[in-house]
Records
---
Amino acid sequence: MKDKMPVLTRRDFLRGTIGVTLGTSVFGIQWPKGEARAAGSSLVTVVRDKNAMDSAKNIDITVLEKMLTETLTRVTGQENTKDAWLSLVKPNDVIGLVPTDHLNPTHDEVVHVVKNSLMDAGIPEERIRDAQGPRNAKKCDALIAIPGLKAHWLTGIGTVLKNYIMYSGSPSSYHKSNSSKLGEIWNLPFVKGKTKLVLVDSLYPLCDKGPQPDPRYQWNYNGLIAGTDPVAVETVCLKIITEKRKAIRGEPWPLSPPPICIEAADRVYGLGTSRMEQIQIQHYGWEDKLLL
Amino acid sequence: MNADKLDLPKTVGVWNRPDSPRLINAKNIFKYMNGAGELYLGYRFHHLEVFDYTSPDQGNILVELYFMENSDDAFGLLSLDWGGEPVSFDGAPAATSKKSFTSPTRALYGGGLLRMWSDDMYARVMAERETPASKEAVITIGKAIAANTQHSPEPVLVKKLPLEIGTVWNLRMDRLSFFRSHLVLNSIYYLSHENILGIDLSAEAVIAPYEYIPGSGNPKRSQFLLVKYENPERARQALNRFHDAYLPDHKKEISADTDADSPSPFRLEDGWLAYKLLGKYIAIVFECPDPESARTILQNNESNLLKKGGGS
């Protein structure tokens, strides 16, 4: 076996050698050991309101609008929504909204609130489009990723990084060991650098793997999670899902398979940080069962 | 079998279904459910029939009928999650027995979703909004699905696992899963993104934890995996591949002789692992607290397998 490629196994996760094994087997390169984003930290906001969605899953649009305003001003440090948006996008940008359309789809209300907020900031409606789908990012200058918070049975977590899987043109090829490569999609020429905000619809997350939604594993979290660093946002999402699973079973219940795409997005693709110590989490509003 | 042979009610409460289902096969299942299609193709999937029961103002009820090659595959899909409230449609005991599989759970309900195994069919009936009325409708539809179908036995492989080992190790039947795909295995107990055990549709496998609750109350749990291959040669090749991938730092000890001495457990990062080739079966135990536990769990399973006619 000495000449054979090492295979990534459970033991690599136990030993902390996933980087070495993935580096030589999947990526064909040595996994960088350096601190990719040693300087500074990534801000992730978690804004919650217990009235955002009721037990019958009805969404209060007014509450949701307030949550978005809180999110935008906190993420950007701007005084108001208009300034916040204009610090992220240019008025003449073609802006693509990228919701998730399956498993635990992004609520239409969240997409509508984002679109209306952009229009209120002076972005013409014709410059705002749905950019989910194989080639839709090509026509956009800026992207707003709006995935639904969820686990995934083939990739562990299926929220932020996986939200662009259709841009690859071959989504099923990222469902096995290559799920570690989901980050490379964010570096495709027609995608790279376009994502101005990641806004996770965490009103009603799904904490189990699926592959189809099971309401026993969904709950009213009533939140919006946001940031400009997709890996940091995904890392916070993973923490919430992990904590919820532990609360359900009363013992650790790790995601299986493990979501290797997150660490790879940090260390191989340089998309952001997956290290909690480099993430500044700011939460506002409803504190109950924050799971952070 | 298909839905024509079922007598699904046209109307349940305020919900109405169309005359015909949407038909999904192996070619278009990915279009219907994206990556989730791989779960069903990981079993021996035949086709899927989908009915949408609609209501004016109480949400819809989605009925998915997965027709599989045989009842083992349908059982396997239900076995991926034994959580929920057991439901009986015929007055038989609904709860999973702690001691045997003689009265297995065939339907589980929770949060508006009914999952059930009925002969060679696995069904999901899900209310968009859970209310007392929608729950009643979901159960009524489930009863119609189960009506006039055989109560097939659970897979033979499942019954080969001893429920108790000595006085200390108990099989966690509520965590027992039957499968034929390494993707499914990884969703239960991650081993490797690669198919290092060579599990495919020609194989069948069962995994379940054995749990030991000592006096201190801190349970110890070991995972037991049993895979049955088409023939002994496939099993031998698979175990070789597993050892090379999972235990490259340990000396290989694979013998085709089922009467060979007890296996030598390997000390790994999460406990002790032992395996044994038993004819066309491979038995592996993971995460044992000590080598003796690993040997005991493996040997008891081997004895049970031979007693029940396996191993050849």
---
Amino acid sequence: MAVRRVANYQADLSSVLFETLREFDLPVRGKTVLLKPNLVGLDPLGMMNTHPAVIAAARESFLRLGAAEVMVGDGPAMDRDTQAVLESIRLREFAGPLSRFFVDLNTDDVERVLLKTRASRLRELYFPKTVRGVDFLVSLPKLKTHHWAGVTLSLKNMFGVIPGSCYGWPKNILHWAGIDRAILDINAAVRPDFAIVDGIIGMEGNGPIQGVSKTAGVLIAGDDPVAVDSTCARIMGLAPEKIDHIARAATFLGHIETQKIRQLGESIASTRTPFAVLEAFRHLRQEAA
Amino acid sequence: MTFSEEICLPYLRAAQNPDGGWGFRSGSQSRVEPTAWALLALDQVFPANAASEAIARGVRFLSDSQLPAGSWPAAAGQGQGAWVTSLACWAFLSANENRDALKRGLSWLVAERPGDSGAWWRLIRRLTAHKKVSMQNDAYWGWSWTSGTASWVEPTAYALLALSASPLDLLPPQAGSRQKLAEGMLFDRMCPGGGWNCGNPMVYGVPGEPQVSTTVWSLLALREHAERSEIQESLAWLEKNWGSIQSLASLALTQVALNAFDRGNSAFSTTLERLYEPDAISWNVPVAAWAALAASGKKFWLQPERAEFKN
């Protein structure tokens, strides 16, 4: 996986991402790609959702790699007016007319999937057909703390593929099944092929909605979502081994140990930017581990 | 021709699927929620002969989709009922159709309790009071999105709208007490200063931000309490938010609520035409239905006139 230092959203993100993706030899030529950003709700201040500059740059990069089609799709959890969410982040200014590439996963056609894993009480979930039918799935979250899960990164981001038209706003069935366990079941059913984390400006404190912005100045990318999240956590000054869903995911979805993660670009030590966490999550801090 | 006649009606008619239902978009899977909205709009806004066959087919789709327990699922194949039951009941009421199916649906709705209604759950919340992150009065509860999960604002508002539109002889005896509890829940979950979000007015001591759709449904569900300060504050928030609206859905829903309180915005039609784009992101079946209901300028559709049931 790769860590790239990026000062701000005005940087040449397309070049940074394209050069990063080229190092992974991704099998996307001629394929359909779905980028799944973290679009929670209205975000006029731009600190809650994946930044549109990152979304646009990722889309452009995958097209340059030869993807036949690059869609962007999400099912915002807290506001069912997806157009309002997209307009609040000005996505069309960065990426062009939305109808050409955006899929509202909340109202997409769905199909029933029997879950392969039994981490939670859930036995089945309905998934959008777009997610199930795409060749290459990219989780594109923002680097944030989370007031229930500890952090929300590429694994937790996959909550957003679950359609609100089947489960509501929010998708409370996932919380009642146990957030950390539901994260595992979802990622086992639709494991992201790649993850790109917008850590240029993240969120600390009472994330994922009501925290404060935190400049981390990084983009983190990799083909192992557990390794990506583990690295993100370490950059945030947190111990991934203490974050329940990451630690459990490491048993079957990817790698958590640094010695098993091939690291490109910047080191964790040089990019470490401790994020403030709520009192309930103080135990996640690396110095407390 | 009006916007409704020129744009909404043809779109809704063309978007109906061969099975009689509507999907969220033209050509997508038939689902109960968009079908209910399409039926409400076609039935309440347009002349009787404008879409009678489409309405009949849509009602048949809803009848065929009802589960044995009396509820409706959010997606075909789901074995459990969900919040869309309220919308299906409302559509049946509007069409004066299928009294028996409606009665079963209303019975299920009144009997269906959310996960946070249980004494055990409330005890656990009381015992862990020091860890409470969301401030709410657990004595009040309403309806959940899916079976056994917590009460939230929107499904609660839908249930109240369906129940208040129903003839008393179709309602189980417990309906009145459920309505009172649910109204209490909505008032309790209002965001400080007015408006509603999904149901988190305060988390870790930080006030939640209101949202248009949940504010609209709550206001409509609580419209009998127009004199209360919470209603007036929330209407004021909607009016103040008008200038920030960037989507057709929010525009239409805002006007729907304002109309219900005789405060419709005179700029609605011009704003609607300015924002209108016939693309899949901004324009879909529910939005077309809401736009038609808003453009009608009327509030009668909230309490459909009840003629004799046709069957």
